[in-house]
Specification:
CATH architecture: Alpha-Beta Complex
CATH superfamily: Spore Coat Polysaccharide Biosynthesis Protein SpsA, Chain A
Mean pLDDT: 94
Shape: globular
CATH topology: Spore Coat Polysaccharide Biosynthesis Protein SpsA, Chain A
Largest sheet: 7 strands, mixed
Number of strands: 7
Distance between the termini: 33 Å
Number of domains: 1
Strand order of the largest sheet: 3-2-1-4-6-5-7
């Protein structure tokens, strides 16, 4: 099995990442934190028995080496909303080559969650990693997912996972560990208190 793990990432540019958090801690501090999380995610997920790559936005940033962790494979996310871009990343999934898509801002995410997601894909065609805010930090497929998987999903709301699961055939999706992303001062404090930053 040659699984592929795709980290979705924004180019680390001041003023364009962690904008909600930047209102409280400043754009420079938010950028530094984002870069730290991105590099940490790459380091933690590089240890697994899978192919790792970054799927980046904006598309032209893929060729700018100094924006990204050294030695990372990079591809452009392409056009469309988040759902369209994730569907594109998952489209090449097969039973012997599943694809896992993860975010770059989940300090608790490690190889263990990816391993559990891959194990789940041995039983079901889809897997999600629920996030504490009602979204998900991981989605994976063992076959090209249905075109309507993310139809009608209200992105950036507390119903993202629920909306996505409603588009799945009954019993077709597994859930793994719940983790929290980092978007605001409260989540920053929680991750620091847990020793993840």
């Amino acid at each position: 099995m040659t699984a592929r793990v795709v980290i979705f990432a924004k180019a680390p540019v001041r003023g364009s990442v962690k904008t909600r958090l930047a209102r409280d801690i400043g754009a420079d501090a938010a950028l530094a934190l984002y870069v730290r999380m991105l590099h940490g995610t790459v380091a933690r997920l590089s240890a697994g028995d899978w192919r790792l790559c970054l799927s980046v936005t904006p598309d032209d940033s893929a060729s700018t080496d100094d924006l990204w962790p050294d030695g990372t494979e990079r591809v452009a996310q392409g056009s469309g909303d988040l759902g369209a871009r994730m569907l594109r990343a998952l489209a090449g999934a097969r039973a012997d080559a599943p694809v896992i898509v993860v975010g770059s801002d989940i300090p608790g995410l490690g190889a263990g969650q990816v391993g559990r997601a891959l194990a789940a894909l041995g039983q079901k065609p889809l897997v999600f990693g629920p996030a504490g805010d009602g979204g998900f930090y991981l989605v994976g497929a063992a076959a090209p997912p249905p075109a309507g998987l993310f139809a009608g999903v209200a992105w950036s709301t507390g119903s993202v996972l629920r909306d996505s699961l409603a588009n799945c055939a009954p019993g077709s999706a597994a859930l793994i560990d719940r983790l929290d992303d980092l978007d605001d001062l409260a989540s920053l404090a929680a991750h620091r208190a847990a020793g993840r930053l």
